[in-house]
Amino acid sequence: MNGTAIENFVCVIYNVSFMNCTWHVGRTASGDTQYFLYWKASRKEDLTECQNYIKDNCGRHTGCRFQNVTIENKKAYFLVNGSRSGQNIQSHEKMIMLYEIEKLTPPLNVTVNCREASHVCEISWQPPRTSHVKNHACFKYEIVIEDKADPEKNIKTTSRTERSIRGNSYIFESFRAEKRYSVKIRATDNGCLVSTSWGEWTTPIEFGKEQLTSTPSYKLFLIPVLAASFILFLCIISIYLKKTSATIPQPRGQFHEISPTDFQTEYKNQLIKHETEETITIIEEVA
User: Fold this and answer.
1) How much is the pTM?
2) Under 8 Å CB-to-CB from 255, ≥6 apart: which residues?
3) Any idea what the Cα angle at residue 139 is, between residues 141 and 110, rounded to 5°?
4) Alpha-carbon gap, residue 286 to 74, rounded angstroms
5) What is the tens place of the pLDDT at every residue in 167-197?
6) How many degrees, rounded to 5, is the angle at CA 52 between CA 50 and CA 53?
7) Which one of 72, 207, 212, 285 has the largest count of C-beta atoms within 10 Å of its C-beta?
8) Model confidence over 260-271: pLDDT tens digits?
9) Per DSSP, what are the bridge partners of residue 78?
10) Residue 196, Cβ neighbours under 10 Å: how many?
11) Helices (H) and strands (E) in the chain — how many of each?
């Protein structure tokens, strides 16, 4: 039954311990053809069937999802057989070194520390997570630094790529405080039991003065809020002052300032009054 066996069998390990295996149905496989995947991670283990199949629109098995896969130094054995109308079809067998099919996770904990005075930035990171590699020297890295575009200054995005970086840091010596940059990193094998394919990129991290100061989203909201709060505060103070001034009792009569002329007139009147009283008293005594 030529052409009934599966084709393009591929397995990928990702996120440290998850594995997907997929295949295409045979060229002459009919709609009632069904496939079954069996595997074992080492020679000492027994074959086990897939527990989580991937299916196509016809309900045929076209892949399998695995969890809790450990790599170590293992050569796994895969067998895909099947049947059609109650008859067996061609089977497919394959041996795979598990570390060779791992898609490395992005490097961890990427940080950027810049010194504006010396125009230097130190970019550092930690190795990607794996289930079988503990030696940091087993990885090398590719780093891409982009000089971000600035339409106002007519600056286009340019990139600078450095490959085969060994170690967990890189010195960027072209830093300019007025510019904005982004950096991303990925890892691959450096002579150990690690996949030779490049792993996943880190999420780009932006740095530079322009990026640090460009925080309009909250500033544009905060400024009018503060202004409105200040105006409301002034209104409250004004109303309070008006109320307190209205409660101060006012004098019934107006106060008049006594001038020097008025004072002298009043003094003379008092003297005349006093002399008159004395004259009346003397007359009464003589009488």
Assistant:
1) 0.65
2) none
3) 55
4) 151
5) 999 999 888 878 888 999 999 999 898 999 9
6) 85
7) 207
8) 555 566 656 665
9) 39, 94
10) 9
11) 3, 16
3-state secondary structure 35-87: EEEEEECCCCCCCEECCCEEECCCCCEEEEEECCCCCCCCEEEEEEEEEECCE
The whole-angstrom distance between residue 46's C-alpha and the CA centroid of its chain comes to 45
- Tokens 């990026």 label which residue? 211
Tell me the pLDDT band of 282, cut-offs 50, 70 and 90.
very low
**Residue 43: CB partners within 8 Å, gap ≥ 6?**
77
Both tokens of 230, joined, read 């200040």
Q: Read off the pLDDT of residues 209-249 as tens digits, 9 standing for 90 and up.
A: 654 433 333 444 556 667 778 788 787 887 777 766 655 55
> Which positions ≥6 away from 194 have C-beta within 8 Å?
99, 102, 104, 130, 133, 138, 139, 188
Place of tokens 């990171």: 125
C-alpha to C-alpha distance for 55 and 62, rounded to whole angstroms: 5
Are 19 and 9 spatial neighbours (Cβ–Cβ below 8 Å)? no
Please report which residue ranges of 89-215 form alpha helices under DSSP H.
209-213
Q: What is the dihedral of CA 268, 272, 277, 280, to 10 degrees?
A: 170
